[in-house]
Each structure stands twice: as C-alpha cells, then as structure tokens.
Amino acid sequence: MAYLPVHDIPMNSPMLSSERKRQSTADSEMATCISPFFCEYAPNQHTARPSKQMKTILLDIGNVLVSFDFDRARNRLISETVGHPDPIRSLRPLKDQFEVGAIDSSTFISEGMDLLHFRGSAQAFRDIWQEIFDPIDLMWKTVRHAGNSYRMLLLSNTNEIHRSFLFERFPIFNEFQGGIYSDDVGALKPDAAIFQAATREFSLVPSETLFVDDLPENVRAAASLGFKAVQYDKREHLNFLRAADRYGFHQLVDSIDWEEPNA
Question: How many CA atoms does the CB half-sphere of 114 hold within 13 Å?
Fold first, then answer.
C-alpha cells in the first residue's frame, strides 16, 4: 500500500489489543504484549513484512514535530496594522516567495511591514511571525527513541525565520542529522524536486525510507517516488506507529508509554 490513511482507533482502545491478538494468532503462537493495548509478535514465514532493512526516517516539521497557529500571529498583527482584516492572507504571496528562497528574511520583513503598514519595529514583526509554534510531545518521544535505530532527517517547506527560531527554541531538532528545506532548494512539497534533492544529498534509498507529513498531497507525492509514506495527525499517534510498524520500522512501537492517556 503506497499511502496509509489514519484510522479512528483511540490510543487507549482495547480494540487495538484485540486486533493485534488476532494477528498474532494468525502469524504466530508466540506473542509479547508490552501493554494491555499493544502486542508485539514474531511473524512466521507467511507474514507479509518488508525484508529490507529500514534505515531512514524523513520528517516534516509543521504539524509533525511542532504544531503551529497562524491565528496567534494574525491577532497580534491586526492590532499593529492598518487596513488589513486578514494580514496573514495579505502576506501569503510574500510568504510563498520567502519559502522558495526568492527573497531573504530582511526583504520579507521590510516588505511585509510596508505592505501591512505595520506600526512596530522589525524585531516585533519577526517575533510575531515566529512565535506560533508548540511542541508535539508524543512525536518528540518517538523521535528520541527512533534515533537509536534509524537515521533521522528533516524535509520541510519553511523559511529562515521559522527555521532559526525552531532550531534555537526546541531541543528536539538536535536529534536530527540534517535536513532539506524549501528555501534552500527553491522548491516546495509536493514538487518532486525537493524529494529528489533530499535523495541526492543524503543518498537515500526511498524504499528504505519512511516519510512522514501531515498533508495528504505531500504523502502521495512521496509515495509516487517510492518512499514509505504515512500521513500524520497528532490525535492519531498510535495509528502512525502502527503504520510505521507495518512498513518495517518496528522499533517505533515501544517509543511511548502505552498506559498514558491519548494526548
């Protein structure tokens, strides 16, 4: 399956235990349950599991590692601008140029301030633009665990302001060995060019690489290029782990405390 949509099974649902127990009965008489809700099993020779060694996890940033809320920036900008009821929408053409590297951060800030008739300082504008992120705790736990078994890389549509803020503010980015960013390569997901840039830069083998993104069009693009691609929603973290396990990334399933409530 090239693209695995998430399913509506809560993290603490006994349905998962029942499903895995049925699978373990079909595939093996021996099962190891790491919690009442999740069982690992040793598949027999008839189980359709990937035989290749899965080596790399390639993660998007926004809504995968951190959530973002542009309403937070919108409300702050409205109080500092004139004649723009939706300043984020007004900034969209500049944002698009910024995220493909057509303009630098100084130009984005100065032209954005002029466009919106922003009354504050350049630093105030920058702060409003970047202070929109919050950690996704369950994914942070998974990333820290996964780093023991897989090469961890980033692939994101982003810009210099957001990237520098994120890397300085959130320690989770220290877990990654590198990344490809839209403003560096001049291409945005789902354009194949950005995936190809990552493949060249890190000598990726797509069939041995798990790509994780929150947007279905990006997941479909990655899958069409041969990546193991999964759509992510923080409310469905368990189902992400199940999908990764199905693709052969078996070390992820024990990355969280299965007895804690869904986050």
Answer: 7
